[in-house]
Structures are given as C-alpha cells and as structure tokens.
C-alpha cells in the first residue's frame, strides 16, 4: 500500500520536472502577478490607509500559485485516460484509494515547491516574514492547500473525458474561489452576503493561515484555519475516493 503511494508520488514529481515549460510558467506567472499588483497598487493602498500592500499581497499570491498548481493535477489524470496508463494502474492489485492519495501527494508536492520558490523570490521584491522560524508552519499551510485542491482537480478529472475542456471548466470553479479568498483584498469590508460566501470558501482559511504565519495577521485564527482545511480535505477525500472507485477500466 505504502509502495503504491510512493510510486504514484514519484511519477507525478517526475512528470512535472520533465515539463520545463510548465515548471517555468508555474513560477514566473505568480511572480509577475506579485510584482505588477504589489508595485502597481502598493502606493494606492499606502495613501488610503498606510497598508504595506506587498506584505499583505504576498501570502495571497502564494495561495494563488498553490491553488492553480495543484488543481491542474487533474489534467494529468485525463491524459492518462487518453493514453491508457490510467487503465493499467486501475487494474493493479492495490486499493484505488492508494493511487488517489499518491497522485494527490505528488501534485501537492510540486505545488509546494512552486510556493517555496515564490516565497524566496518575494524577498527580492521587498516582502519580509515576521519570523523565519514560522517557515515550517508556512509549508504546512502550503501542503494543506495543495493537497485539498489536488483532490479537487482529480475529482473534476474523474468526471471529465476531454483534456482540452478541463482548463475551461476548472477555471469556472477556481477563479471565483481565488477572488473570494481574501488573497487580493480584505474580506471584512465586503458586503455581508459576499463576506458570508467568502467564509464558506476553503481557500479563505488557507490564505488566512499563510498570512497569519507569515506576517502575523489572521482573521480566523491559525487553529481554526488548520481545522477547517483538515475537515474540508477529509470530506473531499471521501468524494474523490468514491469517484475514483467508479472509474471504468
């Protein structure tokens, strides 16, 4: 069981590492977002209320990079369907949930790698953490976000058959999740209906956890953030496992 998880984990990492355009784009794109928004809107926020927008924005862009990097793990499932590799793994004498967990951990690992690189780059842009001792907690939140949304991507991939349609459909799901997570702006000052929706968004707790561990600013509390992410991940793991079991060989 452990061996099958390890094999799928290593495969996902090798698949990511061999695709150099994907690797470069996954790091460059959020860096451009951080620089454009941080330098572009930073002076506006300082004039409005003295907020250092680069400090506020960096955890949010970190959450964005991990969200997009992990959820598109579902694309590899669709290509495996197309080329027959998925059928070969599904007929293997191992529980399917181990294949699911291995894929999800592999996708989460590559997304966390993107996050760590982006965190290092952010220091050259002007971001500073409150304490470097909090880096293990930051990586924990990165992994929780990545594993959760990797499961979401696989769930979507299990229900779809067209690799070209997947990015279009998944964007309809994750774009609202991103914008309603508090990554770009505080959610406390939004209309009450929008704030309620944002509080139902699991990424809100991931971004809040990153912001709390990185700059000491948390709306919900670190313990609440971890608890919500774990509960949502557990529920999504059950759903993903059910969908994965129903895949036809």
UniProtKB/TrEMBL annotation:
Domain ABC transmembrane type-2 span(s) in chain numbering: 21-247
Assigned keywords, A-Z: Membrane, Transmembrane, Transmembrane helix
Domain of life: Archaea
Bilayer topology: Multi-pass membrane protein
Signal sequence annotation: none
PROSITE patterns noted in UniProt: ABC_TM2
Keyword RNA-binding: no
GO molecular function, one term: ABC-type transporter activity
GO cellular component: ATP-binding cassette (ABC) transporter complex
InterPro entries, sorted: ABC2_TM (IPR013525), ABC2_TM_bact-type (IPR047817), ABC_2_transport (IPR000412), Nod_factor_ABC_transporter (IPR051784)
Parts of the chain that traverse the membrane: 21-41, 61-79, 100-125, 131-154, 166-187, 220-244
Keyword Membrane: yes
Localisation: Membrane
PANTHER family given in the database record: NODULATION PROTEIN J (PTHR43229:SF2)
Name under which the protein is recorded: ABC-2 type transporter
Native species: Methanohalobium evestigatum (strain ATCC BAA-1072 / DSM 3721 / NBRC 107634 / OCM 161 / Z-7303)
The organism's taxonomic lineage, starting at the top: Archaea, Methanobacteriati, Methanobacteriota, Stenosarchaea group, Methanomicrobia
């Amino acid at each position: 069981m452990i061996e099958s998880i390890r094999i799928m984990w290593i495969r996902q990492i090798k698949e990511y590492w061999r695709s150099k355009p994907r690797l470069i784009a996954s790091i460059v794109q959020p860096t451009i977002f951080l620089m454009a928004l941080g330098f572009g809107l930073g002076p506006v926020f300082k004039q409005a209320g003295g907020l250092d927008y680069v400090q506020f924005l960096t955890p949010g862009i970190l959450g964005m990079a991990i969200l997009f990097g992990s959820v598109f793990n579902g694309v590899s499932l669709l290509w495996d369907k197309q080329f027959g590799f998925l059928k070969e793994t599904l007929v293997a004498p191992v529980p399917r949930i181990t294949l699911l967990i291995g894929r999800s951990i592999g996708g989460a690992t590559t997304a966390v790698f993107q996050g760590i690189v982006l965190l290092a780059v952010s220091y050259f842009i002007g971001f500073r953490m409150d304490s470097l001792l909090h880096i293990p907690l930051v990586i924990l939140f990165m992994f929780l976000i990545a594993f959760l949304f990797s499961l979401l991507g696989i769930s979507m991939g299990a229900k779809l058959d067209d690799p070209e349609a997947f990015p279009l459909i998944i964007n309809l799901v994750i774009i609202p999740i991103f914008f309603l997570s508090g990554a770009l702006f505080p959610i406390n000052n939004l209309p009450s209906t929008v704030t309620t929706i944002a509080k139902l968004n699991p990424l809100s707790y991931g971004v809040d956890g990153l912001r709390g561990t990185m700059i000491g600013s948390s709306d919900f509390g670190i313990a609440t953030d971890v608890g919500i992410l774990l509960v949502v991940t557990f529920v999504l793991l059950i759903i993903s496992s059910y969908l994965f079991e129903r895949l036809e060989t």
